Amino acid sequence: MNVTNSRLSRLLTLLCALTAPLSLEAAPNPTAYNITDLGTLGGTFSQAFSINNNGSVVGFATLPGDTALHAFLWRSGVMTDLGTLGGPLSQATHVNDRDEVVGFSETSAPDPLGEDFCGFGDHLVCLPFVWRAGVMTPLPALGGTNGIALSINSRGEVLGISENSIADPTCVPPQVLQFKPVIWHKMKIEELPTFPGDPDGGVGAINDAGEATLPTGNCVSIGPPTGHDSLLRHGILTDFGSFEGLGIAANDINNKGQVAGVTVGPSPFGFSDVQAVLWQDGVASGLGFLPGDVVSTDSAISDTGQIVGQSIEPNGNIRGFVWRDGVMSALDTLIPADSTLGPFDPGGINSRGQIVGTAFVKGTCVNGPPNVNGVNCELHAFLLTPTNTEAVGQNALAPPNNVSESRKVVISESVRKALQRRPVSRRDHIPGMGS
Description:
Layout: H1 7-13, E1 33-37, E2 46-51, E3 57-62, E4 69-75, E5 78-83, E6 90-95, E7 101-110, E8 124-132, E9 135-138, E10 147-152, E11 158-167, E12 177-185, E13 188-191, E14 200-201, E15 212-218, E16 221-222, E17 228-233, E18 236-239, E19 242-243, E20 246-253, E21 259-264, E22 276-280, E23 283-286, E24 295-301, E25 307-312, E26 317-324, E27 327-330, E28 341-349, E29 355-361, E30 379-386, E31 401-402, E32 409-410, H2 413-419
Parallel strand pairs: 27-31
Antiparallel strand pairs: 1-30, 2-3, 3-4, 4-5, 6-7, 7-8, 8-9, 10-11, 11-12, 12-13, 14-15, 15-16, 15-17, 17-18, 19-20, 20-21, 21-22, 22-23, 24-25, 25-26, 26-27, 26-32, 28-29, 29-30
């Protein structure tokens, strides 16, 4: 079983349960962007998850032959291979403004319990790492074998997941051990609390004040609807509650304490009313959808309150969006029409309004653009840079509006499999969940 829990794979598998589209008014004059292809490490695939305020980008990319997948750091036009901890695969999940990178990497050793914690399908030991000044260093565990680092703040505090040595009866093989949310500070590990009654926990994001989002539950159901998703502030857990009767799962938190999240359906993997939301001081506001779409889910929020994510049609067509000051705009309508890239999966946004994520390379798809019949396209990480300074908007909890129709991207089966490595909740991986 792939232990990677993917927001996109869960949503796109269950679009048959979606509700009718929401009719929203158009909004004029959305921000325009220049788009940059970040390239790969020699293969045909790359994906970006995080960008800091200096424009440094992290993610993972394939090497020549597409047989190995390595974490990368992209700076000033150069993509650097961060290597691994001995195995064939690694992934960078987040970068702070000091260019400190966190993520996870396989080693060359088989997992002693046959677990597949990294989710790459080869059952090797999976370790969290921090990369500083050219050196990748593994982080300590709670007593178990595996762990993953997912977010790092300006103070160098690293948020992640670690196994302990306790066998968990709620797990489904190959996952065996219990796992907990943790924080590392100066290479020392500290276990974070889970919601009362929840034995296991994942993590979302951490801001510079040390506030963190923590989804908890049992081994096979982390976060809503059967578990909980909470804000950890000053040692106290506050459940995010619900919006329009549905639980809220957090995906990111900014330095103002604003949380980008998504509503979760009434049963595990039941996404009948999935909508991106903005949560602030106990109040949630829905972001709506792009015209004709019935699902929206966000990835990241900047300190200026801009949110990026995906908006999806009933048949599985998907578009990336940016939400700013109450307006949701489709990314593919905001870039030059002659771009060779089609951005459909934004993963991160910084305070300058720059956006990173994944795009398909036009002209590389088999039998035309991606479609539901399952064709292959080359995927590259992208960077969007606003063409004007007004792109850095002020925060607003305003009713969402939307721009006009845009070109649609249909996720192919091969693309979905690649995106299944993409984490939920600000790059988290939940053992025992996923396909």
